Amino acid sequence: MAMITFRINRYNPDDERRGHYVQEYQLDVEKGTTLLDALNEIKWKQDGTLTFRRSCRSGICGSCAMTINGVNNLACETQVLGLGNSTVTVEPMRGYPVIKDLVVSLDPLVRGILAVKPYMITHSPPPSDQERLQSPEEREKIDGLYECILCGSCTSSCPSFWADKEYIGPHAFLKAYRFIADSRDEGSREHLEALDDRHGLWRCHTIFNCVEACPKDLNPTKAISELKKELVRRKLG
Amino acid sequence: MTNFDPETIHDVEGVPIHSVHRHDVVIVGAGLAGMRAAYEASSEFDVAVLSKVFPTRSHSGAAQGGVAASLANEEEDHWEWHMFDTVKGSDYLGDQDIIETLVKEAPVVVREFEHMGCPFSRTPEGRIAQRKFGGHTKDFGKGGPVLRACYAVDRTGHAMLHTLYEVCVKNEVRFYPEFFALSLIVRDGVCRGLVAWDIINGGVHVFHAKTVMFGTGGYGRVFKITSNALANTGDGLSLVLRAGLPLEDMEFVQFHPTGLYQQGILVSEAARGEGGYLLNKDGERFMEKYAPSKMELAPRDLVSRSIQTEINEGRGCGEDGCGVYIDLRHLGEDKIMKQLPQIHELAWKFLGIDCIKEPIPIQPTAHYSMGGIPVDIDCQVLADGKEKPVRGFYAAGECACVSVHGGNRLGTNSLLEASLFGRRAGKSIVRFLRETRAFPELPSDAAEEALGEVERILSADGSEKVGIIREELQEKMMLECGIFRDAGKLEKLTGGLRELGKRFEKIGIDDRSVKFNYDLLEAIELGHMLDFTELIVAGALRREESRGAHSRTDHPDRDDDKWLRHTLAWKRDGRIEFDYKPVTITRFQPKERKY
């Protein structure tokens, strides 16, 4: 058990004049308490106005991504005592418009996803009474790609996104590559089209922030470099 | 009926009222059932999907182990075997005509997911891979466990959910993410739309629709230990009750045997399907005593009761003695990391346990609602719970009771049910809309109930706290309406719920703004939870037998003479009224249920 001070960055859209400010809360925290548990405890027992997204609390829905001691992570997967400080700073993920307290707009995320035609494109009809075949080796190529939970941690940490709000973003590149790498997909050209754009792939400067930020240990930078290779190959070929 | 006119509805200070949205189909819930229906209907009609969370954050995504279909990709299997297992698993309360449809259509539904792009794991021949799961057997229960659960590693729900979002985007389904349904508009047996709250901006929106479909999911959050998301508060169920419609078989609540100790977070049944053992604190593989033939792969109700018995008799582990272990060590690092990586990650992140080296402490966790909104085989909601449909109103998935799970659901049958009946709902909506050109009339008071509720809660300044009442509700439900029940506990709980209901009238909230106000939403959700929870408890008290997940220590036997029937319950003027309907039995006569 330890007394922890939570320094939470707050913003009330009905009080524009006050703008963003920091409010401190204190809570006794025991081993096993996640940051989401702590935020819930504060909301339910101390201050009902504190606002954050949450749902599954088991790291699969992606709702509670926020900036914790300067690093993007899921609150539900963050052990408070594991942070090793008596003060924990919590902020909304940077780069996205803040709606209220720790809640940010998902619009940039969705815009990026929609740009890459985020669905399997096939031209030949599927076999009527069975699945399309895919060998375990072919299937393995989309491991590390399909697991994305769309939490937005990667794109929020990306300097290219900070500089260009129209930037498609690593989360969407990962999605695009998930289909291009899928042996069943026949629409590489269509997925790639949107990426060869001034808000697209070439804005990535391989800074690897997205890799560091991903709570699911995925590697958008690797997907981006594969996509770049694919685009160049197509241009030359 | 006078027509709805947004200009004339009563004004709530500070709450913007938005004009009416019109769609052919309005679906509430963006999980597997809701999005599967949306995908189906959107090829022909204008479909809107409202969801209290962003679609890919729906709780279907937390399902891990698999989706059942007798594809026979790995070994011999038949829909008749799947049917027998589902009927027996349901403790003979499932309707067999509907179960037959479920198991016969399952292969088509799963293959369609593959065609949409779902990244299933594969066999060496390149087909969809399948694994073992509890209660799924060969040869009408006479053989061992069968490879029937189609899977995508241990993230099957996630893979299916994201695939559906993708194809819905492709079909240009109109999403309203972070919209919260406040009330249904049902008049004269016709569903005319619904009223919803825009969470992000605040404000009441009226949705005028030719058809409404609910895929609103379950309500695990009324229990202290649950695998369910914070969003799973069963709102859809009480919206239906408040519209004067019944709910079916609400006393049947599934406790999943393996939730992470004290957290309740799901440890997939795939962990046992792949060969994991259950051990008590003395290291005994105790399932030998309870299910000598199927062991850890007995159905969930039986395994949960076995674990709870070990705990009650003092053989539990952990600081409060309320856990047992699931041991995966003998599977080896390769198999764990290849087939169960998410389990490894969850045990590590939430308990600090490396399951390659240590067993994982677990405990039973409230997981799934077998009961729900009574619907027919075409997913039409039934006004009398039996045969009279509410025109234009559909439901599918966990919120519905069709009934394929009866008293106890088999693992992997829920992803199947949600997607299969979501698809059926979509198809029956399409049939309805092809014949129905006009929108039903919208009554002038369509938004009054919803506005009244928002106004009442936004101005609530009593001394009671929502969080505290909810916590007490969750503790009481766990203790008095959990795995083992008896008349004494249930009667006490009936009084307890009444008290909580009175205290709920005296709540106060802190946040009075309209933008992203979860303080408001959590209060509304608690109102829903208190409403339908009464039906669970009353149903459990009346059903004086033990069947499936409903286990009465004062009535330990199944009583087919009296209770081989479905419970229907309404709430009228604050009182609960019951009716019953027979179970449909076709191929398999009820027998003693042994594993």
Structural overview:
The complex is a heterodimer of chains A (about 240) and B (about 600). By secondary structure, chain A is an alpha+beta fold. In chain A, about 30% of the residues lie in helices and about 15% in strands. In chain A, strand 6 and strand 7 (about 105) form a beta hairpin. In chain A, helix 2 packs parallel to helix 6 (about 170-180). In chain A, about 50% of the residues are buried. In chain B, strands 1, 2, 6, 7, 8, 9, 16 and 17 form an eight-stranded mixed β-sheet that branches. Chain B contains 16 helices and 22 strands. In chain B, strand 8 and strand 9 form a beta hairpin. Chain B has about 600 residues and is of the alpha/beta class. Chain B starts with 16 loop residues before the first strand and ends in a 13-residue tail after the last strand.
Record keyword descriptors for this entry.
heterodimer, A: 237 residues, alpha+beta, Ubiquitin-like (UB roll), Fumarate Reductase Iron-sulfur Protein, Chain B, domain 2, 5-stranded mixed beta sheet, elongated, B: 595 residues, alpha/beta, 4-stranded antiparallel beta sheet
Strand content of chain A: 15-25%
In percent, how much strand structure appears in the residues of chain B?
Answer: 15-25%
Terminal CA distance of chain A: 63 Å
Quick one: which chains have the greatest interface?
Answer: A-B, 58 and 62 residues
Outline the low-pLDDT stretches of chain B.
none
Low-pLDDT windows of residues of chain A: none
Helical fraction of chain A equals 25-40%
Helix fraction of chain B, binned, reads 25-40%
What is the makeup of the main sheet of chain B?
A: 8 strands, mixed
General shape of chain B? globular
Overall geometry of chain A comes to elongated
How many helices of chain B?
16
**Terminal residue distance of chain B:** 58 Å
What do we call the CATH topology of the largest domain in chain A? Fumarate Reductase Iron-sulfur Protein, Chain B, domain 2
CATH class category of the largest domain in chain A: Mainly Alpha
Largest sheet of chain A: 5 strands, mixed
| CATH 4th-level superfamily of the largest domain in chain A | Alpha-helical ferredoxin
Strand order of the largest sheet of chain A: 2-1-5-3-4
User: What is the assembly state of the chains in this entry?
Assistant: heterodimer
